[in-house]
Amino acid sequence: MLPFTRPTLSEEDEQAVLEVLRSGWITTGPKVAAFEQALADYLGGGVTVCAFNSATSALEAVLLASGIGPGDEVIVPAMSFTASANVVVRAGARPVFVDVDLDSRNLDAERVEAALTPRSRALIPVHFAGLAVEMAPLRDLAEHHRLLLLEDAAQAIGTRHAGRAIGSFGNPTCFSFHPNKNLTTIEGGAVATNDSALVRRLERIRFHGIERNADGDMNVPLWGGKMNLPDVNAALGLSQLARLDAFNRKRRKLAEHYLERLPRHPALHPPASGPGHSWHMFCVRIDYAALGTTRAAFQQALAERDIGTGVHYPAMHLFGLYRHYGYAPGDFPNAERIGEQTLTLPLFPGMEPDDVERVCAALAEVLDG
Ligand SMILES: Cc1ncc(COP(=O)(O)O)c(C=O)c1O
Question: Which of 112, 122, 140, 228 would be a feasible disulfide site paired with 148, CB 3.0-4.6 Å?
Fold first, then answer.
């Protein structure tokens, strides 16, 4: 069975973890500091990196540290993993969904501008599947309306845009290192930012609100949670980071192979591409209704041919939680179409071009009924 994703783990990764396990210090310590510095160096652009135990924690912490709360509105794409909007609810603010482009699955400035109100305080673009959002118009909009521009780059470690790494533009940018992601720490996340005052607040929020003076005395001036990354995970991250560019080159090669070899069928829509794409996922759209089938039956037919698939994602505004905010079917046609038609095909660095051929052949068979 070819799964839709699989982490790429090596003996070096195992050795790195074992070393920390045997070192006598396994929670947050020197490996986290080294991982943060290595990530900052990797991103370039003079940013500081603050590690967290997940991207969800990282996003929550940035919203809290930026004073986003009750009465505030935060713009979020209707197409993303639910964490992108859940963190807004957790901060006590209101998520305001905006439709995405059908092909890139990303936000654009025009749609965002139309959703702004006097209560808008922040904007969370998501670099979907590793394809960068067009940032310059969003940055202009954020500056003009004094909005926090918080990049959800959970799926975009290693993505490049306008000649730079996503995460190096200065806006707080959150990454995920969940096992599905292009670099994994098992669970983990990070914020990259050029705002040193924000870094100090994030460091407090991620560890109980604790602050220490020069004598080492402890004070808790503000609330904080428990969101720190252990050294065991950071050691895995350091080991993975050394191979990230190689992983992403392989992903790109496999994605290009897919784009060349996917069956040309009117019901199959390939994903948008782009030069800095890190190809976290390869998500096609399939018009199941035109084929007289359902996604579940289509997935089952591929599974019978030993091909695993995923669904990323149902449109968020149609989840029960968000219906309470008044959202309903028909609000965001592109996100809904993607939600109904999306299918994630296998893509991970351990695959070979022959695996892509196998997926394409199985797709052709299933598409032809
Ligand atoms: C777009 C997006 N945002 C946030 C998250 C949350 O990441 P984590 O699992 O590290 O909390 C994910 C995870 O898949 C994601 O895809």
Answer: 122
CA–CA–CA angle 196, 197, 202 (5° rounding): 95
User: What confidence category does residue 369 fall into, taking pLDDT thresholds of 50, 70 and 90?
Assistant: confident
Q: Which CATH architecture has domain 246-367?
A: Alpha-Beta Complex (3.90)
The CATH fold of domain 11-241: Aspartate Aminotransferase; domain 2 (3.40.640)
What is the Cα–Cα distance from 364 to 24, expressed in whole angstroms? 54
Domain ranges of the chain: 11-241, 246-367
Q: Which two tokens stand for residue 96?
A: 């305001």
Per-residue pLDDT tens over the stretch 255-313: 999 999 999 999 999 999 999 999 999 999 999 999 999 999 999 999 999 999 999 99
Ligand 1 atom, smallest distance to 188 CA: 10
Which ligand 1 atom lies nearest to the CA of residue 57? 11
Candidate of 178, 182, 280 to mutate for ligand 1, largest count of ligand atoms within 8 Å of Cβ? 178
Best probe residue, ligand 1, of 52, 56, 312 (max atoms within 8 Å of C-beta): 56
- List, in sequence order, every beta strand (DSSP E) within the chain: 48-52, 73-77, 94-98, 120-123, 148-149, 151-152, 160-161, 164-165, 173-176, 189-193, 211-212, 218-219, 268-269, 282-286, 342-345
For 194-251, the three-class secondary structure string (H helix, E strand, C coil) is CCHHHHHHHHHHCECCCEECCCCCEECCCCCCECCCCHHHHHHHHHHHCCHHHHHHHH
Dist. CA 268–CA 218, nearest whole Å: 59
For the CA of 128, the nearest atom of ligand 1? 1
> Ligand 1 centroid vs 152 CA: distance in angstroms?
8
pLDDT digits (tens, 9 = 90+) for 158-179: 999 999 999 999 999 999 999 9
Q: What is the rounded distance in angstroms from the CA atom of residue 109 to the CA atom of residue 310?
A: 29
Mean pLDDT value of segment 133-154: 97
pLDDT in tens, 200-247: 999 999 999 999 999 999 999 999 999 999 999 999 999 999 999 999
Residue 166 and residue 190 in contact, taking contact as beta carbons nearer than 8 Å: no
Which residues' Cβ are closer than 6 Å to ligand 1?
Answer: 54-56, 80-81, 83-84, 126, 152, 154-155, 176, 178, 189
